[in-house]
Design brief:
CATH class of chain A: Mainly Alpha
Number of domains of chain A: 1
Largest sheet of chain B: 6 strands, mixed
CATH topology of the largest domain in chain B: Rossmann fold
Strand content of chain B: 25-35%
CATH architecture of chain A: Orthogonal Bundle
Structural class of chain B: alpha+beta
Strand order of the largest sheet of chain A: 1-2
Distance between the termini of chain A: 36 Å
Number of strands of chain B: 19
Order of helices and strands of chain B: EEEHEEEHHHEHEHEEHHEEEEEEEEEH
Strand order of the largest sheet of chain B: 6-7-8-3-9-10
CATH superfamily of the largest domain in chain B: P-loop containing nucleotide triphosphate hydrolases
Number of helices of chain A: 13
Oligomer: heterodimer
Radius of gyration of chain B: 24 Å
Helix content of chain B: 25-40%
Structural class of chain A: mainly alpha
CATH class of the largest domain in chain B: Alpha Beta
Radius of gyration of chain A: 24 Å
């Protein structure tokens, strides 16, 4: 009897896996290790000298007020953008589920934005939200000073939150539509018989039943908002005005590549990695607990 | 609580190419327990879902309590329903499952608790109120589903094969309980099933559906003793009625290789007919009876099912005696005249007896 294909050579699997392995090592593990190394050393701006300083870099960052300011900015940015993207995606998914007749069309339309790169979207939204042209420009002529994201920290923050949520909504939407679809129709029928209209069914039955998936997308969004929001910030606000949108991921870039403080920014990267690890750990624990409850 | 009469008129439903029902008319009387019975695919569940408003009919009207509800959404029809797989909300406790409809109906907490308590008392759920559905056994879930349906005291109670997921013993207990509940509640009840035993034991009235049409509607005993067609004869009863082809001349029907029978049936132009007889009506040792060969015996303790052949036709008989039988033995079967149903061989419909025609 012949089962599926089998490779006999001992090295064949490694050879076949090599391209992927090389990519990961070159662009993920190597920089991480390099960052780890740098975070314990004081590096010269152009890398020609290096002194071991132990916790020196970490101590410097942890004493720096701008680190905590950036941490708080990150928290605000993450909380707002995650809430916004999950909420909007949930509403869209609920509406698509309600009107199944053209659901397929809308499902496809709503998934498309997922294919747009963050920086491209950042540029588009920057133009769209420009205070001098377009809709916002018009509103500014009606009420001078109404929209000034380059001056107002709150407005700048709301702009990048909106932009980042926009990039996350398609993914959340796909997951939530699939989740809603997987609810057996009898529950909805039973709720309808019990006297619940579409909105009540959504709030009382559908949303509680997709809680695991809501938690999942929120966690994915949270991690993404910490690590993957660089493109949006860089294209739209560059961390400004006055550090109002200077989230950690952007501060690392600014300190390292503009301030040329390679060691400090490496230490920051490690701290950021620790934060993401913590979030992931929480996620794992929660999923584990939920899986056990369902079993 | 009182019920409401339901009228279904000219109901048609198609799924793509397949026609489930065509121009169906059914009435459900106030406070009556009606069992809608039929083989799978006969449209009985569709009928129930159309009445509940969960599915839209292509044609026809549904009125409940003399109000046309054809376009009314399910939440406004005043029906309660028990689903085959119970459909208990998994994230709510038993208390909340039962109380959900009451909450939506705008009842205050005190009244809600009272009604939940009543339903729990009636169904023996008092100790389970704080559990989640996943912590319940199949029978307990079934009770909660029924509790949820009766707590709101709707005028119409709909059951969609609610007992089919239970084991035999539990099913029997629930049957008794449902009958008791109905007598206490008095709502118009429609109970869909493919199990003729449930129909016989539960129903005030049975509606037997076949291919989206009413094959026969009446009391369980009417369907049992006076089946309108050979389909009804073959569907009701365990084992069902024997239906034999026979040759018809004058007052007599001749069963091939079996013998002649006097039938209360004359004036027919046809020469072939069907003879129906219940297994328990057949006498096994009748003088000058129909000649049959014994094939096999199933002893069920309380009675024996005797498999015999008359010529090439298989016949089942039920025997309560103790006489030993040998396979291969020749028997002389007696068919009591008043137990014989005669069916038209072409249409399968029962022919009226001479006595009935004259009366």
């Amino acid at each position: 009897m012949k089962s599926s294909a089998r490779f006999h050579g001992r090295w064949t699997p490694f050879v076949l896996g090599l391209p992927q392995l090389m990519l990961i090592v070159l662009f993920f593990y190597w920089p991480t290790l390099k960052g780890w190394w740098w975070s314990w050393h004081l590096e010269c701006p152009f890398g020609h000298c290096s002194t071991f300083v132990g916790f020196g870099n970490y101590a410097r960052e942890l004493k720096d007020g701008s680190f905590y300011a950036s941490l708080l900015t990150t928290a605000v940015f993450s909380a707002l953008s995650v809430s916004l993207s999950v909420l909007v995606a949930l509403l869209l998914a609920g509406m698509v589920e309600l009107h199944q007749r053209s659901g397929k069309l809308f499902r496809n339309l709503l998934i498309w934005p997922y294919a747009v790169a963050g920086s491209v979207l950042g540029v588009i939204l920057k133009v769209a939200a420009s205070p001098s042209i377009g809709l916002m420009g018009y509103l500014n002529t009606l009420w001078p000073g109404f929209w000034q994201p380059h001056l107002s920290g709150v407005q700048a923050m709301s702009m990048v939150v909106f932009a980042f949520a926009w990039t996350q909504i398609p993914f959340d939407f796909i997951v939530l539509v699939a989740a809603l679809r997987s609810i057996p129709t009898d529950y909805m029928a039973a709720a309808a018989i019990d006297g619940a209209g579409p909105l009540r069914r959504f709030i009382d039955i559908q949303v509680p039943m997709i809680r695991p998936q809501l938690f999942f997308v929120a966690m994915i969004n949270l991690i993404d908002s910490i690590t993957n929001s660089f493109a949006i910030i860089d294209t739209m606000t560059q961390g400004g005005p006055g550090g109002a949108t200077d989230i950690l991921a952007y501060k690392i870039y600014r300190d390292g590549f503009i301030g040329l403080d390679l060691s400090g920014s490496s230490a920051l990267s490690m701290l950021l990695m620790l934060l993401v690890l913590a979030v992931s750990a929480v996620q794992f624990v929660m999923f584990e607990r939920q899986a056990r409850r369902e079993a | 609580m009182s019920g409401a009469a339901i009228q279904v008129r000219g109901l048609s439903k198609r799924y793509g190419e397949r026609t489930v029902m065509e121009q169906l008319d059914i009435d459900f009387a106030t406070g009556q327990f009606t069992v809608v019975l039929g083989p799978s695919g006969c449209g009985k569940s569709t009928l129930l879902r159309v009445i509940a408003g969960l599915e839209e009919a292509d044609q026809g009207t549904v009125s409940i309590g003399d109000v046309d509800m054809t376009r009314t959404p399910p939440q406004s029809r005043g029906c309660a329903m028990v689903f085959q797989n119970y459909a208990l909300y998994p994230h709510m406790s038993v208390r909340d499952n039962i109380g959900y409809a009451l909450k939506l109906a705008g009842l205050d907490r005190v009244e809600r608790e009272r009604r939940i308590g009543e339903a729990a008392e009636l169904l023996g759920l008092r100790d389970l109120l704080d559990r989640k559905p996943t912590q319940l056994s199949g029978g307990q879930r079934q009770r909660v589903a029924i509790g949820r349906a009766i707590a709101r005291r709707q005028r119409v109670l709909l059951f969609d094969e609610p007992l089919s997921n239970l084991d035999a013993k539990l099913r029997h207990d629930m049957r008794m309980e449902l009958r008791r509940l109905h007598n206490e509640i008095g709502a118009t009840t429609i109970f869909v099933t493919h199990d003729q035993m449930e129909a016989m034991t539960l129903a005030d009235r049975v509606v037997l559906l076949n291919k989206g049409q009413v094959e026969q509607a009446g009391t369980p005993m009417a369907l049992y003793h006076q089946p309108r067609t050979t389909f009804v004869a073959g569907f009701i009863g365990t084992p069902p009625m024997n239906v034999l082809t026979a040759h018809h001349e004058g007052d007599y029907a001749t069963i091939e290789d079996g013998g002649r029978l006097h039938v209360d049936q004359r004036a027919s132009q046809r020469t072939s007919m069907m003879i129906g007889i219940r297994p328990e009506a057949i006498a096994l040792d009748a003088p000058n009876g129909i000649i049959a060969t014994l094939d096999a015996i199933e002893d069920l303790g309380s009675h024996r099912v005797i498999y015999v052949r008359i010529g090439r036709q298989r016949v089942l008989a039920i025997d309560h005696g103790r006489r030993p039988f040998q396979p291969g033995e020749t028997l002389s079967l007696g068919f009591p005249p008043d137990a014989i149903c005669c069916f038209d061989a072409a249409t399968g419909e029962r022919m009226a007896r001479v006595a009935e025609v004259q009366a």
